[in-house]
């Protein structure tokens, strides 16, 4: 049987918002290594981020742009055929995406746009507790706003829904691991993903000529790990060859993460909301099919980062 025809042109230029973070950097690195002919324009709002990008990507154009400053977005998107959009937690998506859509439409050059989301698939907004609605994290509220605006724009968008927790979040839990050999975190049930592989998958989709991805909502996880954090503590014990105990109580969480201040309650409320709807999470093989290999497991990630997770904290 003859393979169906693919119709999407490969972008000759790619704009990466959040290029200095743990998704944007591996995306840019993959494009630099596998498609050096593509013109890269890398965005970071932080001066230190731009300096890092200039060191690692000397052939790329490094700029600053602000979601809430239309004048900065127009030159950012000008002439760009591929665009990767990743907004930080707390972004007010209504003005941010309204401004960006207007700039992209005015430029008129976009072939393929990737937008990251963090949603429980098909979750009803009516089930979102008020505390979570008001939290600055706001993903269950803000990301549907972003999707509605992009859907209405008729721009060539593919949604990458990060239906998993990032494995490098374990570094948030490092202090208790080092000091007490204890994992302290909410005992949520969740799938997992290495952010480096999200960046690579995004790059591969930009380089893919299959037009059928445009308009799709793809949920990404490693397809292998659906775990509670008590399960992760057991994995850590096996990988580290020493006992890692677990405490998922609210009291331990608030004590361990006291420096977060009010953020502790916002996170806890968010995790409780996710736990109330945890049956929605299911491993899938989209990331594996996109990468062309099995994604990294939690065990493999822990083996790679064991020394760093257990190394003494700087004084």
Automatic annotation (TrEMBL):
Q: Which residues cross the membrane?
A: none
Looking at the record's lineage, which domain of life comes first?
Bacteria
Question: Which InterPro entries does the UniProt entry name for this protein?
Answer: Ergot_Alk_Oxidoreductase, NAD(P)-bd_dom_sf, NmrA-like
Q: Which SUPFAM superfamilies match?
A: NAD(P)-binding Rossmann-fold domains (SSF51735)
Q: Which residues form the NmrA-like domain?
A: 13-278
Extract the Pfam families matched here: NmrA
Please report the name of this protein according to its UniProt entry. Answer: NmrA-like domain-containing protein
